[in-house]
Predict the structure.
Amino acid sequence: HIPAGYRHVFHTFVMHFDGSAFGKNRDDLMDLLVNQYRLRVIVQYYPLYRYPLFQKMGAGEHDCPVLEAWWDNSFSLPWWCGIPDETIGYLVASLKEAIVTLKA
């Protein structure tokens, strides 16, 4: 829900994919989306303690198993303000087809 007088910028659309049940991972899905469906999917942000600057400052050692498991399976789809419905349809259809392919 977006309150009256406000608007959302729809900055990112982060997905989570855990294909471990069928021997695949996020990178397998990303490779398929990039190479077969021509979708530029990326890992856009990382936990701060993974960045070299924070590691250099001594903030690189953490025990965050839930975050690690979640983040290592996450990626961002192309997304922007005013994304057309047909583009959303292509993203959804491509994602569904790619997951079916990986499960096979």
User: Anything to note?
Assistant: The chain has a mean pLDDT of 90. The first strand starts at residue 13 and ends at 16. Strands lie at 13-16, 74-77.
